[in-house]
Design goal:
The chain is mainly α. Helices cover about 75% and strands about 0% of the residues. It is rod-shaped and about 40 Å long.
């Protein structure tokens, strides 16, 4: 249970970071 919640937090953080990265560098998004 604890590991699952931690995995979700890490997943959401990585998604936010990737979104921010693609926003700052649209040429490397795809």
């Amino acid at each position: 249970m604890v590991g699952e919640s931690v995995g979700r937090v890490i997943e959401s953080k990585s998604k936010n970071m990737s979104r921010r990265f693609s926003n700052s560098t649209p040429g490397l998004a795809n």
